[in-house]
Design brief:
disordered C terminus, mainly alpha, about 65% helix, two-stranded antiparallel ribbon
Length: about 190
Amino acid sequence: MSRTLLNAAAFQLGWFACVLGAAWGLPWAGPLAVIAVVSLQLCWHPDRIGRIGLMALAAAYGLLLDSLMASQGIFVFRDEWLLDWLSRPWMVALWPNFAFTLHSSLSWLLGRYWLGAVLGAVSGPLAYWAGSRLGAVDLGGLWALGVLAVVWSISLPLLLWMAARLSSPRSPRTSLRPLRFNSGRHA
């Protein structure tokens, strides 16, 4: 099995562990699963420092963004926590889990910010909707999906931009190369 497929499978495993763990009253199962799957992938990754930096930025961004959205009633966590509006550890773990895909199974999106905006507007709300259907959160209503579409149409391109800035030039699979247009003449 290729590393790309393993990365996609690891992401799904982490996502389901986080969401189902929260829904089933096991909120730490998800973060522990994400730590495990990301750690295993880091073992063979040539740019560990860059990936760890990207995951840390994604986690901080997700903590702030999800806490803000929860405070505005876009979604409501079903479990008890320090503050009702503060994002939960299982929710924060989803962000580095997703960020690790940006240089692997989603590397084809790097540099394609408009496509990232469209895919974010569709897939972001779907992920939150799926999480609500599985019992991890309650959405604030149908309007919440529209807000999530706008938020993710901005968030995915931002994450792609961060991924591009944190990529190592030594890692050919993760570095962006500028588009070159050949005029037909050879240098």
